[in-house]
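Module 6 notes. Inverse folding takes a fixed backbone as the condition and produces residue identities as the prediction. Think of it as a translation problem where the source language is geometry and the target language is the twenty amino acids. Below is one complete input and output pair. Work through it position by position during the lab.
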């Protein structure tokens, strides 16, 4: 830090008002600058915290300006002198300062413009005053003053203190750019109190190095004890799952109290044995959102947890681990046991960005860090700062309340995380889920999919000014695991394709067999068709022949010679009377009725020639006589 920066800062703090604590980012005093780099003495009598990413002289607390540990509205003034140029993403750093500053808080900045690069911890940026102005206004600061040179002459000009003589020996290019900015003041009566009395400033050990909390194997805090944390559990039917949940919870959790909201649980005696701190009973099923809010209303303390009654937790000391993290990170307001990095513009979370420790998910969804920043938790369970935020009951019975609560915390300036805790969510079995229960389905009209879409649209409209949103990221380990899973899926698809090809070959062979059999059957059908046609032709011929014989019989009956012969035969043979002839006619009719016309004509055709021959022989004999 140059002497002209110290001179500028001394002048500014005499002219402006600011609140406590004062936090300096980039406070490490390197050996070559130790004599003039420390600015703590300029803020004598003020609560002062020096922060840097490395330990050393002038550093009270390790902190990263891009992801600060301070909670929303916890800092009175931030000083960042010749440090923003060492931040990789200064736009994020400026947004962080805006987040941690109290309403009306002061931000003092100096950034080199024409100076040699510095190695610690990496030198990235040079900025003009206009660049600083853009960064500050984009971050939400409303009062911004900038200077182009940074020496006392430029400061006096900027403050309107006269016009000094121009020194022609000076370069027209500024060495350093300065800026003074303020966060907009808010109506403190209408805002949620976001910082508890036991803030990070009061908890911080004033001597360096900052005291780090150590944990034993179960994750319990071994340096201090904490107050009991209330756990809100709404219960609705599913008695066996609920009993298993409470039994497992008692094995892995210490120092907690129960707030039970009975939303439809048959075994009330079991609930009484748990000896809850608060017991609330609803006369009818009010869904998931309302009973959680009922529990939150009676929860005391800085932290409160919410768990589904079908969630099994297997990591001992899980609650201590999460609360210890939230104690160190005042910027974190909500820690879930599952969540997603991204919420899309349509209000639906991006399932591919899931982070959860449940065993039913792919390994790429498992947390690779103990704690991972996300955009939204999953409603199966979480720990939250008890600052008065509640679930949105306008959503109805359930759906999207977890996404809504997450965005409420983010909108209030907090971060949302997921803890790597080994869990099993029994609702993953759809048949055991509340969403398949007849009581729930009756309340929403019978179609949960339509109800889900309706609530999604309400959520989208409410938060469209923040959507889409992504927080945190999938790290390299998750990416490699996802690649491995995709390769495994690809191998499975290849095997499936090979199986399909084999099956297709079998089907092709079977199809060829069917085709050959079909050709054979068609040939047989064609042969049978030809045979039928032959029979039809023969039948037609027979019918024609029968018709011809019928005509022939008629002609024989009409011939006189035959009638004469018949008369003579009758005279010669008196026994052949008319009754005999009638008998022949009767036989003809009998054959017609029993055998049909065709066979009768055939029989007649065989009989008549025979009789005609007999008559001719008899006539020949009579002519000889």
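Target side of the pair, the amino acids:
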């Amino acid at each position: 830090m140059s002497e002209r920066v110290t001179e500028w800062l001394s002048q500014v703090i005499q002219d402006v008002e600011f609140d406590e604590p004062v936090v300096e980012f980039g406070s490490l005093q390197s050996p070559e600058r130790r004599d003039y780099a420390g600015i703590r003495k300029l803020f004598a009598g003020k609560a002062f915290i020096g922060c840097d990413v490395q330990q050393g002289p002038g550093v009270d607390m390790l902190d990263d300006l891009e992801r600060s540990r301070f909670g929303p509205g916890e800092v009175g003034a931030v000083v960042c002198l010749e440090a923003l140029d060492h931040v990789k993403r200064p736009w994020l750093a400026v947004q962080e300062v805006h987040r941690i500053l109290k309403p009306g808080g002061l931000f003092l900045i100096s950034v080199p413009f024409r100076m040699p690069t510095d190695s610690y911890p990496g030198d990235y940026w040079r900025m003009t005053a206009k660049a600083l102005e853009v960064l500050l206004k984009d971050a939400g600061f409303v009062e911004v003053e900038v200077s182009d040179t940074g020496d006392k002459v430029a400061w006096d000009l900027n403050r309107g203190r006269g016009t000094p003589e121009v020194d022609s020996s000076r370069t027209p290019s500024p060495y350093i750019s300065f800026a003074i900015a303020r966060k907009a003041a808010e109506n403190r009566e209408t805002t949620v109190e976001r910082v508890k009395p036991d803030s990070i400033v009061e908890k911080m050990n004033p001597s360096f190095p900052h005291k780090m909390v150590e944990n034993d194997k179960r994750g319990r805090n071994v340096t201090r004890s904490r107050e009991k944390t209330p756990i809100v559990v709404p219960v609705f039917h599913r008695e066996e799952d609920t009993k298993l949940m409470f039994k497992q919870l008692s094995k892995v959790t210490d120092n907690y109290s129960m707030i039970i909201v009975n939303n439809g649980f048959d075994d009330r005696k079991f609930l009484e044995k748990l000896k809850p701190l608060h017991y609330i009973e609803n006369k009818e099923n009010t869904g998931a959102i309302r009973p959680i809010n009922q529990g939150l209303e009676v929860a005391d303390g800085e932290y409160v947890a919410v768990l589904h009654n079908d969630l099994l937790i297997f990591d001992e000391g899980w609650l201590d681990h999460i609360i210890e993290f939230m104690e160190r990170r005042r910027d974190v307001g909500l820690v879930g046991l599952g969540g997603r990095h991204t919420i899309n513009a349509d209000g639906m979370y991006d399932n591919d960005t899931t982070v959860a420790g449940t065993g039913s998910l792919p390994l790429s969804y498992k947390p690779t860090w103990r704690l991972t920043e996300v955009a939204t938790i999953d409603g199966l369970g979480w720990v939250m700062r008890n600052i008065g935020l509640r679930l949105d009951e306008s959503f109805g019975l359930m759906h999207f309340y977890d996404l809504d609560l997450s965005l409420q915390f983010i909108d209030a300036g907090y971060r949302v995380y997921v803890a790597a805790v080994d869990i099993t969510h029994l609702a993953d079995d759809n048949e055991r889920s509340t969403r398949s229960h007849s009581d729930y389905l009756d309340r929403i009209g019978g179609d949960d999919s339509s109800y889900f879409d309706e609530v999604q649209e309400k959520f989208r409209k409410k938060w469209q000014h923040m959507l889409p949103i992504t927080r945190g990221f999938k790290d390299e380990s998750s990416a490699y695991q996802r690649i491995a899973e995709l390769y495994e899926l690809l191998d499975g698809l290849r095997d499936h394709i090979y199986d399909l090809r084999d099956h297709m070959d079998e089907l092709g062979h079977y199809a060829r067999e069917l085709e050959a059999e079909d050709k054979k059957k068609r040939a047989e059908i064609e042969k049978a068709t030809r045979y039928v046609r032959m029979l039809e032709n023969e039948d037609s011929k027979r019918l024609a022949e029968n018709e011809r014989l019928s005509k022939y019989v008629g002609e024989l009956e009409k011939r006189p010679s035959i009638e004469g012969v018949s008369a003579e035969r009758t005279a010669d043979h008196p026994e052949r009377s008319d009754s005999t002839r009638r008998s022949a006619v009767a036989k003809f009719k009998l054959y017609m009725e029993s055998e049909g016309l065709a066979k009768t004509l055939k029989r007649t055709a065989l009989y008549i020639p025979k009789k005609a021959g007999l008559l001719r022989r008899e006539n020949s004999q009579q002519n000889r006589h």
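Reference fact for the lab report: Residues 140 and 523 are 88 Å apart (CA to CA).
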